[in-house]
Fold:
Amino acid sequence: MTNHQVVSDPLVIAGVTYQSRLLVGSGKYKDMEETRLATEASGAQIVTVAVRRSNLGQNPNEPNLLEVLPPSKYTLLPNTAGCYNVDDAVRTCMLARELLDGHDLVKLEVLGDQKTLFPDVRQTLKAAEILIKDKFKVMVYTSDDLIIAKELEAMGCVAVMPLAAPIGSGLGIRNPYNIRFIIEELKVPVIVDAGVGTASDAAIAMELGCAGVLMNTAIAAAKNPVLMASAMKKAIEAGREAYLAGRMPRKQYASASSPIDGTFF
Structure:
């Protein structure tokens, strides 16, 4: 793999090409300016927006998120954060499409438990089916279950986004084997969503072969969010290059860096 090939290794979602494989959230920052600076430092091109918690113009007397994250610069990814049933999730996507002038790329999440924020898989499947029939391009948050991931791909989701650990936990990838099983079986992008805590977690996800990583709290809750955003950008790039390069095989015993064959003494 040449340097040129690495640089031109894009992420493709629903037919659109992106150079950055880091997707970031827009919540939990102290103010709009920090949101802007951290997003810029991350190099991300796709930014998730919690429609139920963000002002996208529906409240004219409040700061508008679109002023710091303009659709002309970023691909906004409306998400259904905070939805616990099919009706709320579908209604939220409809609202996003109205507020964003027909925007059809959405991130679906239907939660099933308030403590862990684990997805309700049955409700997620139902909501995905409705949205896809209504011409939405659905990126879907789900469990790290291979069978469910395959079903979501089969019904037409444009990306499958298994959790690495509970949302906002920062625990890192708890079950890399399940994530790898999903990557090996699916043809659509597999993007780790939730659980990343620091740069090494992001690099590990990419080394497993993930198409990308979505994070919010790992950046926004850092002591220096802008610096952490920059670190995450580098980690994603390094992890992807390591995956493409192909790591050395693991060995039980030592192997000399400099072979002794042909030495002078």
User: Anything to note?
Assistant: The chain has a mean pLDDT of 92. The chain is about 35% helix and 15% strand. The two ends are 37 Å apart (CA to CA).
